[in-house]
Specification:
With 356 residues, the chain is of the alpha+beta class. It has 8 helices and 20 strands. The strands form 4 sheets. A 6-stranded mixed β-sheet has the order 6-7-8-3-9-10, sandwiched between helices. It has a 5-stranded antiparallel β-sheet with strand order 13-12-11-14-20, with no helix packed on it. Strand 9 (205-210) and strand 10 (213-218) form a beta hairpin. The radius of gyration is 25 Å and the shape is elongated. The two termini are 31 Å apart.
């Protein structure tokens, strides 16, 4: 039997005619960090609130640690929660904020003191116990929020867009702090975000959501390198999508006609000659050369229609026939707008999305 700490079974939640969660099935293993990832309105926060007990599903069941908690109140679910807005009490010190969950559980003062200081040391904030939230930076406030969520040693840690109010550099630092803390404690965690970079950096597995459904569940590598749908390929990272007709299939390659161009892509058992095929390649996988570069498989002549400098990389739009492809390079060799180029789409970096 799979060792799930959290399991959603056929969870459906409606808001009038809107189906926010549509027959969601998801198992979250003990000790793993699972991210619910998707655009605004995809249903990820609704799924989280069904786990916390703030919402009750219209259909389906929620299990935590093997127990059906669908109708169990939030405060009886042994959950630690961290929110987007930190949710600290401004009139309380750091110590008092972290102590609050213990105080309402009627623990002794001595026991509370030990647990609070242990939690503050865990987040490296022990010397700030007498500070008020207004005296802390955004990152420090978020650490206090983490300590308060973990102080009573919950079974599960739930994080709802916890870094969205921080600046870009601090967000990156906090990602690694949260992941390191989660690994050190071995706690099961559910993280909600719309930020794909955050999901890829933090997660053991990611559930990509769209329209109230789970599109794909997998490791960061799997959802980036082997997306199961056009939505996932488009949402996770940048992609050039190309649609054509399969001309032939030989051994491990298929030839796809796109108007007067022909592309080679890896073959799959579901491909059929004369059928439409959508494939994609990541812009950083396309290779860009001067026009004198030798021709080869999947090489095409094009013209740079736009060039944007992004610091650590250069972003190009390159016109090839009727197509405009996005290409990103490290910028060591620079091409200007209007310049002729030769680009190559490595066959093994082209990925087909076969519908049906």
């Amino acid at each position: 039997m799979t060792d799930y700490m959290i399991e959603l079974q056929n969870v459906t939640k409606r808001y009038g005619p809107i189906v926010a969660n549509d027959q969601i099935n998801l198992g979250i293993l003990r000790g793993e960090l699972m991210t619910l990832l998707g655009p605004s309105g995809c249903g990820k926060t609704t799924a989280l609130r069904c786990i916390t007990g703030h919402l009750t599903p219209d259909e389906g069941r929620v299990f935590i640690d093997g127990e059906d908690v669908t109708d169990v109140p939030t405060h009886q679910r042994e959950l630690g929660m961290v929110f987007q807005n930190f949710a600290l009490f401004p009139h309380m010190t750091v110590y008092e904020n972290v102590d609050f969950p213990l105080m309402i559980r009627n623990l002794s003062k001595a026991e509370r003191r030990e647990m609070v200081m242990e939690a503050l040391q865990l987040i490296r904030m022990g010397e700030y116990e007498k500070h008020y939230p207004r005296q802390l930076s955004g990152g420090q406030q978020q650490r206090v929020g983490l300590a308060r969520a973990l102080v009573y040693r919950p079974k599960v840690l739930l994080l709802d867009e916890p870094l969205s109010n921080l600046d870009a550099k601090l967000r990156e630092e906090m990602r690694f702090e949260i992941k390191e803390l989660q690994r050190r404690l071995g706690i099961t965690a559910v993280y909600v975000t719309h930020d794909q970079a955050e999901a890829l950096a933090l997660s053991d597995r990611v559930a990509v959501m769209s329209g109230g459904r789970i599109e794909q569940v997998g490791t960061p590598d799997e959802i980036y390198d082997q997306p199961g749908s056009q939505f996932v390929a488009d949402f996770i990272g940048l992609s050039d999508f190309i649609e054509g007709t399969v001309l032939s299939i030989e051994a491990e390659k298929a030839v796809v006609a796109v108007e007067d161009l022909q592309f080679a892509v890896p073959a799959s058992p579901r491909m059929r000659p004369r059928e439409k095929l959508l494939f994609f390649i990541r812009p950083n996988d396309v290779e860009l050369f001067p026009p004198s570069h030798p021709a080869g498989e999947n090489t095409f002549d094009g013209v740079v229609s736009k060039m944007t400098y992004l610091g650590d990389k250069v972003d190009y739009r390159v016109t090839v026939g009727h197509l405009e492809l996005r290409v990103q390079t490290d910028g060591k060799v620079r091409f200007e707008q209007g310049e002729s180029v030769r680009l190559q789409l490595p066959v093994d970096r082209c990925r087909a999305i076969v519908k049906g």
